[in-house]
Design goal:
- By secondary structure, this protein is mainly β.
- It has 2 domains: 93 residues, no CATH class; 219 residues, no CATH class.
- The protein is built from no helices and 23 strands.
- A 5-stranded antiparallel β-sheet has the order 5-6-7-8-9, with no helix packed on it.
- Strand 6 and strand 7 form a beta hairpin.
- It is rod-shaped.
Length: 352
C-alpha cells in the first residue's frame, strides 16, 4: 500500500500498481473478477438486494437475475429472454404476460413491411411480409334435375343465386284454351333456400282472364335477398273479330319473359320464355270472326341471392321445371301458349 498522489491511496502487487482509491472513485488497473454466482446468489449483487444482479449463466453468457429468477441473458447471438441459453431470442408464456415493444430491423423491407414468423420449433424471426395470395372465385351452374352440391376444399363462403320455374302461358281459341302449367320449385339445402314456381296463365272463357302469379322466395338462415317473381299479363280481346292479344309472361330477376302474341289475322302461339330464366311464357293470341278467348301470361319463379358463410360439406338441390304451355282451344285462330322457363342455381365459391 502506498500514497499514489494527494488523497489517492494505491495498492501494489509484484511491484506494480493494481488498485487506486480516491475520495471519488475506486479504479482497478487490472481485470476485475467475481465469482460465477448463481440465479439465487449473483456474482455481482447489491448490498440492499442480494437476490438481484449478474451471474455467469453459461459459457459466454451473462445472466440477469431478479428476485431469484433468471429473466434475461446476453450472448454473442443477442438478447436471451426468460433464461434461454440457446443463442436465439425466445418468448415463453411467462415472458408474454405483459406488453412488449419489438423494434423492426432498420433496413427497409423489400416487400410490404415485415412480420414476425415462427417455425414449428418456436424460433421467431423477422421476415418480409409475403405477397397476399388471391384465388379467383369459381362458379358451378345447375340447370335441371336434382342432386347434391359438394363444397370444394378451401372454400370459405359461397354465394347462391337461384330462381324457380316459370309458369306456362294460356292457350287461345273461340272455345277456351288450356291454362298453362305451374313452374316447379327450386331448392338448395334442407329448409334453407327456396324459390317457388310461378303459376300458369289462364286460358278460360272470360275476357281479361287471370294471369299467372309470380312465385314466392325465402332464404332461411342465410344472409341475402328474396324477391317474388313477376306476374304475367292478363289477356285482352275484341268481339269485332279483328285481333286478340295474349298476355305477356311475368319476368324473373334474370329477365327473358315470353311475349304475348297478337295479330289481325291467323293463329299466334305465345312465346316461350328464355332458357333457365325462370320467367313465364306468353299467352296465345289470334283472330276469329266470332268472339275469341286469348291466353294470359304465366308467372315467373321467385328469386334468391344469398351468402352462406362457413358452408356445409354438401347441400341437396333441385331445379324447378318449366311450366307447360297451355293447350290451344278450338275454332279459327286457336293457338297454344308459350312454355315457361326452368329454374336455375348459380353457386359462386370464394377462397382466400
Amino acid at each position: 500500500m502506498f500514497l499514489n498522489a494527494s488523497n489517492v491511496l494505491g495498492f501494489s502487487a509484484g511491484g506494480s500498481s493494481r488498485l487506486l482509491i480516491s475520495s471519488t472513485a475506486l479504479s482497478s488497473l487490472v481485470s476485475f473478477r467475481s465469482s460465477n454466482g448463481t440465479v439465487a446468489s449473483p456474482g455481482i449483487q447489491f448490498s440492499s438486494d442480494a437476490q438481484t444482479g449478474f451471474f455467469r449463466a453459461n459459457t459466454d453468457v451473462i445472466g440477469v437475475s431478479t428476485n431469484n429468477i433468471y429473466v434475461a441473458g446476453f450472448s454473442s447471438a443477442g438478447l436471451l429472454l426468460n433464461g434461454s441459453t440457446s443463442g436465439t431470442t425466445t418468448l415463453t408464456t411467462g415472458a408474454t404476460t405483459t406488453s412488449y415493444t419489438l423494434t423492426l430491423p432498420s433496413a427497409a423491407p423489400s416487400v410490404g413491411g415485415q412480420v414476425l414468423s415462427a417455425t414449428t420449433g418456436g424460433v421467431a424471426s423477422w421476415i418480409n411480409a409475403p405477397t397476399p395470395a388471391y384465388t379467383a372465385p369459381s362458379v358451378q351452374r345447375f340447370t335441371s334435375g336434382s342432386g347434391t352440391y359438394t363444397t370444394p376444399a378451401g372454400v370459405l363462403y359461397i354465394k347462391v343465386e337461384m330462381v324457380g320455374g316459370g309458369g306456362g302461358g294460356g292457350g287461345a281459341g273461340t272455345a277456351a284454351g288450356g291454362t298453362g302449367g305451374t313452374g316447379g320449385n327450386t331448392t338448395f339445402g334442407t329448409a334453407l333456400l327456396t324459390c317457388n314456381g310461378g303459376t300458369g296463365g289462364y286460358g278460360g272463357t272470360t275476357m281479361s282472364g287471370n294471369s299467372g302469379i309470380g312465385g314466392t322466395a325465402s332464404f332461411g338462415a342465410a344472409t341475402g335477398l328474396a324477391i317474388a317473381g313477376g306476374s304475367g299479363g292478363g289477356n285482352a280481346g275484341f268481339a269485332s273479330g279483328q285481333w286478340y292479344s295474349g298476355g305477356m309472361g311475368g319476368s324473373s330477376a334474370f329477365g327473358g319473359a315470353g311475349g304475348g302474341m297478337s295479330s289481325n289475322g291467323g293463329a299466334f302461339p305465345g312465346r316461350t320464355a328464355a332458357t333457365n330464366s325462370g320467367s313465364g311464357g306468353g299467352g296465345a293470341g289470334g283472330n276469329s270472326a266470332v268472339f275469341f278467348y286469348p291466353g294470359a301470361g304465366g308467372g315467373a319463379g321467385g328469386y334468391v341471392d344469398a351468402l352462406i358463410a362457413s358452408p356445409a360439406a354438401t347441400y341437396a338441390y333441385a331445379i324447378g321445371a318449366a311450366g307447360a304451355a297451355g293447350a290451344a282451344g278450338t275454332g279459327s285462330g286457336a293457338a297454344t301458349g308459350g312454355a315457361g322457363a326452368a329454374g336455375l342455381i348459380v353457386v359462386t365459391e370464394y377462397r382466400q
